[in-house]
């Protein structure tokens, strides 16, 4: 099992990669706009899932600190 710190670092690194990929997606120059829109939608969905996971981890950390 990974430590909470490992989980947070992993989640943040995935969010960073997703953000960079999202920023590189140029929807105006590529003839494959529908495919890119799908990719952006998938990235957005994954970022939302990761954000929820990160919030859960942060809540868990706060709970542990209060003990």
Give your account of this protein's structure:
- This protein has 67 residues and is an all-alpha fold.
- It has helices spanning 4-24, 33-66.
- Helix 1 (4-24) runs antiparallel to helix 2 (33-66).
- The longest helix has 34 residues, at 33-66.
- It is elongated and about 55 Å long.
- The chain starts with a helix and ends with a helix.
- Residues 40-67 form a coiled coil.
Spell out the key features of this protein.
mainly alpha, 67 residues, 0% strand, single chain
Q: How is this structure best summarized?
A:
By secondary structure, this protein is mostly helical.
SSE topology:
Layout: H1 4-24, H2 33-66
In helices, the fraction of residues equals over 70%
Counted up, domains total 1
Order of helices and strands: HH
Q: What's the total count of β strands?
A: 0
Give the N-terminus to C-terminus distance in angstroms: 22 Å
